[in-house]
């Protein structure tokens, strides 16, 4: 968190005061620290340094071109789940041979485009998808490199909506069916089997479930090896969490994570892929918002801010905790506030009964740790345009996505000429 600090009573990101940015960019907006993104990447890279590894950033966490370019420049690959994400990654400079394509519903045109670009591998999630990739590859006169994503049926201690590795989740192929699926894949004419993929969930802070999952990968590797199916790549997914709430959360033990990989998988001479999203960008960004009104009641005090659930969905979707801080350091007495947005839903709430120094109309606050699953999950509910994104590096800042023009948003609709005039 070292890049977010109060200096002269003003909250800074790197060398730039947030209030300086807000003078030229209307709130709400996201702001990211390029240096923190770089540091997060380099720290993971050094943790894995003596393993033959490739970090494929999970583009779903933050797909801004400037963020992707920052990571690509350090050598990052990309884990994508749609044609759009694939195009974004390539456009930002990620080479195709560092791209893995995950996701349960890849369509033929997406597969075709990825094949033509020459991506590193498709992470296959079902038998039906396997046949479809084979069909498209035959049509394109190519061979598709694939890994099969297994569902190891391992539970993790995270929000139910972001656990992915248990039998009830839609992801991957059940462990019991995995061997047969690999054999099937190996016999398809336009498929080259190269890897095993596993991803058990997101915001994982206790790394022990990785051990059970990787054990299953190791067992499968051995069975495949005995059948002469050559596995060169072990894609271990993402999922490492961050500390959103210093009073209640801990950071994952990265030494232990690394040791689990070593203990369970190092006997195989494979390339390891990891697909971190949140752990590379979440703590590098915040959402800056202005207090529109305070509304002091007998039961509750509300702070109505100009960001809302359409801009940042995590609190309303997952009841996620995010720290909220005033931009101007304050010595005023604390008050308990419900911090809410202007959208017409009671779920449009960023925090309940949060203690903050007294704030009033015009004051700025930041919602912290919004650099992953923030802007990417925003929408235009209540006809609110998508907000700007800003990047800071040292003493410089730049808009890296312009706020959506409200008129453009309205003009997307068309009124058919057969409607009553
Ligand atoms: C296949 C896959 N890889 C990587 C990720 C990134 O996860 P995280 O942001 O938790 O690192 C996800 C999201 O859960 C995923 O589904
Ligand atoms: N959107 C989720 C993470 C999803 C991970 C992708 N499988 C979050 O904000 O926590």
TrEMBL record:
<dbReference type="Pfam" id="PF02784">
    <property type="entry name" value="Orn_Arg_deC_N"/>
</dbReference>
<feature type="binding site">
    <location>
        <position position="314"/>
    </location>
    <ligand>
        <name>substrate</name>
    </ligand>
</feature>
<comment type="pathway">
    <text>Amino-acid biosynthesis; L-lysine biosynthesis via DAP pathway; L-lysine from DL-2,6-diaminopimelate: step 1/1.</text>
</comment>
<dbReference type="GO" id="GO:0008836">
    <property type="term" value="F:diaminopimelate decarboxylase activity"/>
</dbReference>
<feature type="modified residue" description="N6-(pyridoxal phosphate)lysine">
    <location>
        <position position="60"/>
    </location>
</feature>
<dbReference type="InterPro" id="IPR022644">
    <property type="entry name" value="De-COase2_N"/>
</dbReference>
<comment type="similarity">
    <text>Belongs to the Orn/Lys/Arg decarboxylase class-II family. LysA subfamily.</text>
</comment>
<keyword id="KW-0028">Amino-acid biosynthesis</keyword>
<dbReference type="InterPro" id="IPR029066">
    <property type="entry name" value="PLP-binding_barrel"/>
</dbReference>
<feature type="binding site">
    <location>
        <position position="373"/>
    </location>
    <ligand>
        <name>substrate</name>
    </ligand>
</feature>
<dbReference type="Pfam" id="PF00278">
    <property type="entry name" value="Orn_DAP_Arg_deC"/>
</dbReference>
<comment type="function">
    <text>Specifically catalyzes the decarboxylation of meso-diaminopimelate (meso-DAP) to L-lysine.</text>
</comment>
<comment type="subunit">
    <text>Homodimer.</text>
</comment>
<feature type="domain" description="Orn/DAP/Arg decarboxylase 2 C-terminal">
    <location>
        <begin position="29"/>
        <end position="371"/>
    </location>
</feature>
<dbReference type="InterPro" id="IPR000183">
    <property type="entry name" value="Orn/DAP/Arg_de-COase"/>
</dbReference>
<dbReference type="InterPro" id="IPR002986">
    <property type="entry name" value="DAP_deCOOHase_LysA"/>
</dbReference>
<keyword id="KW-0457">Lysine biosynthesis</keyword>
<feature type="binding site">
    <location>
        <position position="239"/>
    </location>
    <ligand>
        <name>pyridoxal 5'-phosphate</name>
    </ligand>
</feature>
<dbReference type="InterPro" id="IPR022643">
    <property type="entry name" value="De-COase2_C"/>
</dbReference>
<feature type="binding site">
    <location>
        <position position="345"/>
    </location>
    <ligand>
        <name>substrate</name>
    </ligand>
</feature>
<keyword id="KW-0210">Decarboxylase</keyword>
<keyword id="KW-0663">Pyridoxal phosphate</keyword>
<keyword id="KW-0456">Lyase</keyword>
<protein>
    <recommendedName>
        <fullName>Diaminopimelate decarboxylase</fullName>
        <ecNumber>4.1.1.20</ecNumber>
    </recommendedName>
</protein>
<feature type="binding site">
    <location>
        <position position="278"/>
    </location>
    <ligand>
        <name>substrate</name>
    </ligand>
</feature>
<feature type="binding site">
    <location>
        <position position="318"/>
    </location>
    <ligand>
        <name>substrate</name>
    </ligand>
</feature>
<dbReference type="InterPro" id="IPR009006">
    <property type="entry name" value="Ala_racemase/Decarboxylase_C"/>
</dbReference>
<dbReference type="InterPro" id="IPR022653">
    <property type="entry name" value="De-COase2_pyr-phos_BS"/>
</dbReference>
<feature type="binding site">
    <location>
        <begin position="275"/>
        <end position="278"/>
    </location>
    <ligand>
        <name>pyridoxal 5'-phosphate</name>
    </ligand>
</feature>
<feature type="binding site">
    <location>
        <position position="373"/>
    </location>
    <ligand>
        <name>pyridoxal 5'-phosphate</name>
    </ligand>
</feature>
<feature type="domain" description="Orn/DAP/Arg decarboxylase 2 N-terminal">
    <location>
        <begin position="37"/>
        <end position="282"/>
    </location>
</feature>
